[in-house]
Sequence to fold (302 residues):
Amino acid sequence: MKNMQKAAMAVCLAGILFSGCGNQKAATPPPATSAQEATEKAQDTAQPPKKEAPAQLPYITATKDFDNLQLGAADIPVYDAYTLAERRANGMTTVLPELTPYQEKKVAYLTFDDGPDDVNTPAILEILRQENVKATFYVVGRSALTYPDIVKQIFLEGHAIGNHSYDHDYDRLYASVSQYLEEMEHTDEILHGIIGVRPLVTRAPGGRIGHFTEEYVSALAANGYVEHDWNVSSADTAPNHPVAQDFIDNIEGQATMDSPIILMHCSSGHEETVKALPGIIHVLRDRGYAFGVVTPMTPQPW
Ligand SMILES: [Zn+2]
Fold:
């Protein structure tokens, strides 16, 4: 009898190990989402991302081979579990595969550059939460070091984080391709240290036009960076002290294409952008746009 009980228990244990056994519901985690599956797949090597995300991960983590990035949904951020240094050290590719951009029509991408700060960025996050809208924050490495908790908040609330250089110094960034890459990689390391993953999307400070040569374009591709400029500008850095209504009008006038990528700023001094944001969201929503976050699949603005 004892042997039979033992045998039954062994079968049951085996059952638990492979497919669950008996009334395991209370202890069984909820069914994996595709985001979780993707993350778990990426976690099966040496350097997994930090486990600070909630059970329902608000992002996708790329696999070692970047073979899970052909996505259908435009509102889920995508990151890499590995830094470039880790990829090189482990013989993993740093080059993204060819991806077909999202086919969805009428998706607007709100993007906020130059943050985070500790006033305007949290205020913008609050408005986005109230409006149930996801956005993209192109952060500066030096500010990320100053406000790591705000970076974490952006990440955990399901917005996308992109790399916007270490300190936005045009003279140094555009002096040479190697300087540019060095700063981007330094910022990646900082962000990886804060959120446990690395952004795959970047925005060149000031935009690529007038700054990038062909050399920059091929060097970025070789290192798996996808750069997106914008096709709609709020002009919230214009020198004539524009106010919130100007930004709303600018966006209303320009956002007529299928995939507007809208330039705004969330660093200190951009209080008017905070004031304009609810109006900007309502204008876009009334025009029939859904809201997406920038990923490697986001269509280029031009
Ligand atoms: Zn900038």
Q: What stands out?
A: Residues 113-114, 164, 168, 205 surround zinc ion (CB under 6 Å). Confidence is low (pLDDT under 50) at residues 1-46. The domain at 33-292 is CATH 3.20.20.370 (TIM Barrel).
